[in-house]
Amino acid sequence: MGKDFATGLQAKLDYIELLVQEQNFSQALAEVKEQQTLKVSFASQLEKGRFLYLSALTLYHLGRYSEALAEAKAGYDIFRFSSDNKSIGEVQHLLGSIYQAQGDFSKAETELRDATAAFRRIEDQLGMANCFNKLANLYFVKSDYHQAIDYLKKALVATQASGDVKTKSRILGNLGRIYTLVGEIHKAEENLKLNLEANLKFNDEINTSRAYLALGYVYLQKRDLSVAESYFEKARNLIEKNNLPRELAIYHEYSGELAFIKGEFLEAEVHYQKVLEIAEKISPKGDLFNQGQRLLAELKLVQGEYSRALKAASSSLEVSLQLEDQLEQGAVYRIKAQIYDALREEAKAKKFLSGALETFKEIKNNFELGKTYLMAGELKCIDNFARLKFLSKAEDLFGELKLNYFLGSTYLKLATHLYQQQEESKALLFLQEAEKIFQEGKYESDLKAALYLKNQIERKISQDKTKKAIQKYTFENIVTSNPKIKEILEITKQFKDTDLSILLEGETGVGKDLVAQTIHYQGKRASHKFVAVNCAAIPETLLENQLFGYQKGAYTGADKDKPGLIELADGGTFYLDEIAESPLSIQVKLLRVLETKEVYRLGDNEPRKVDVRFIASTNREISQAIAQGKFREDLYYRLSGLNLKLPPLRERKEDIPLLIAYFLEEAGLDLGFLENKDIYQGFLEYDWPGNIRELENEIKKTLVLIDWKDDKVFNILQEKLKNLTKKNSKAVSLAEKVEEFEKNLILEALRATAGVKSRAARLLNIPESTLRHKVEAYQLEEE
């Protein structure tokens, strides 16, 4: 009967072990309790040791660590004096796992190293792999990721030798978790998907739940929140089914972070409190408590409850220091820096910022380091230059890690910072990059924030531009003493606040654009847009699209609705430059807009109301264009509610000295030498066929060629004007024109370089030998 009883007990132990392997821990514990109730007698001490080990293993997986530790110690006391190295290794591995769960990392490492030695004595590769994997997990918790990776590599080698696919899958899962924490999200996703696939294949519900949690957290970091949530819920179902308290705490931790990111702070707090409740039961001073307090501190910081945030952060920091968990230490330092910054305690804020940066540099975690730089870019306790420097470092790190969401967030903060420093153009460049990332990643809330800031900046730029334009484009700022121009300006003043269309006629360069903009910016529409289009510069095939816009699908490539320029000018002024160059087909549509105040986009049958004042200009004789059938007479009458003809510069030569002084003053020259009236003679004799624009361009070109700022500008220009006047007075051959042009260009270069031929040759971009030859050929030495 004793033999039969022993055989029955052995079978019962085998059954309990099977239940543990199947991860049916509740049933396994029930079987253990039944044997304890029966107060069975064991056939040997080793059998009793095995029973104690299975009891401890079951309790460990159910999160009852104190009870598990007592059973495991009792089991080890039996095996330690035996030669059963496998059992010794298994119990020591379990002891290491329990100590780690309780936060006693030193004892955990000792037990795991001893367990590895026991398995090595009997060449048990699978046992060694499990120990290496657990040691990797231990260093993972301590934030020593490089050591963790080394142990995982050893574990993979041992697993390969053992041929155990399930263990290999578990190791891949652990690698995935490490990659997640260091920000190598793509590697993390790849490893965790392999892990999940294997767990599903083996119908391993417990490890499947862990894989779901880990993958969900990967997608949380990628800000793919709907996918993250679906994985978390799949995990929760398996966790509740299998009664896994630690995994349940992790579920609440991750779900709380998800709610926090979504701005659902009350729900986040509920989850965090659940984490702390579970931690209190299974390990009051373990990593779950540590993380729960840190997350609660982050939440209270955002809610403005700084005293509660500080209390939670301090509790987290105390435990993380005990656990030697540098990752959590750095994260808490980061939160404390934010709390003290909000409390205006600058010294403490800087101290904890420095602590966070040093910690993450020490453990070589560029992901957390980048997040800290990103946070530092918002601290009020540091100056603007330092903020920009921190954000630039964050940009570099997230770019290296290919973390698009965080890179986009950095661009958004850089844009915000630059906008606050009134560098709107630079801010828009970063916003464009952020907008692109947020659109591609479908980060809707972040995209809204970027677009909101973009609208603010564009509005500010528009307002500043309008303000400057209103100051610049005034009737008083138009340089003239000519009676005809003054009369035209007086007329425009009377009509500036009306909606009457205006047609400006005159040669190229007489100032039609200037008058058009002055009418707009001194009129009632100044706060709205001034939109200009040059009808001669845009091909007919594109002009209709530009003016009237198009509807999505109107033609191949029209993938979205686009308003035309006339629509964009709604409320403001639309300026049609060179209107006489517009094709008749466009003229018909412009006439309809003028008559109905409506536009039709290409491909759209619905009209759109517009409130636009039209100003048009032409350098052609409009009556001649009408007579030739090139311009519609009815459009002419619609546009010329007020018709103004600007005289050419040759008919207002009294303005030339005023214009010269204006252009030179704009260039920053000392105008003292202009008191000599004789210097204007050459300018007054020349007819200026290009009008004011030609005068301005000649002055600008001359200023580029010289290194000084005095009356030599006039000497060069006078010489040029003499030659131009001579050329206008007699017909010359092409060869003569080329020769004269080349001579003048060489002379300008020599004057600009004080006669130094090597410098003049560089200025002209020709070899010095070529220049010397031409100087000799044109007999320019004496000149």
SSE inventory with pairings:
Layout: H1 2-21, H2 25-38, H3 45-61, H4 65-79, H5 85-101, H6 105-121, H7 125-141, H8 145-162, H9 165-181, H10 185-201, H11 205-221, H12 225-242, H13 245-261, H14 265-282, H15 287-302, H16 306-323, H17 326-342, H18 346-362, H19 366-376, H20 384-401, H21 404-420, H22 424-441, H23 444-472, H24 483-495, E1 502-505, H25 512-521, E2 530-534, H26 540-548, E3 549-550, E4 562-563, H27 565-568, E5 573-577, H28 584-596, E6 598-599, E7 608-609, E8 613-618, H29 622-627, H30 633-639, E9 642-645, H31 656-666, H32 681-685, H33 691-705, H34 712-729, H35 734-752, H36 757-764, H37 768-777
Parallel strand pairs: 1-8, 1-9, 2-5, 5-8
Antiparallel strand pairs: 3-4, 6-7
Helix pairs in contact: 1-2, 1-3, 2-3, 3-4, 3-5, 4-5, 5-6, 5-7, 6-7, 7-8, 7-9, 8-9, 9-10, 9-11, 10-11, 11-12, 11-13, 12-13, 13-14, 13-15, 14-15, 15-16, 15-17, 16-17, 17-18, 17-19, 18-19, 19-20, 20-21, 21-22, 21-23, 22-23, 28-30, 31-33, 34-35, 35-36, 36-37
Written overview of the protein:
Mean pLDDT is 90; it is low at 1-6. The strands form 3 sheets. Strands 2-5-8-1-9 form a 5-stranded parallel β-sheet. Strands 3-4 form a two-stranded antiparallel ribbon. With 783 residues, it is mostly helical. Helix 31 packs across helix 33 (691-705). Among the domains are: 1-123, Serine Threonine Protein Phosphatase 5, Tetratricopeptide repeat (Alpha Horseshoe), CATH 1.25.40; 126-243, Alpha Horseshoe (Serine Threonine Protein Phosphatase 5, Tetratricopeptide repeat); 473-647, P-loop containing nucleotide triphosphate hydrolases (Rossmann fold); 651-777, no CATH class. It has 37 helices and 9 strands. The radius of gyration is 41 Å and the shape is elongated.
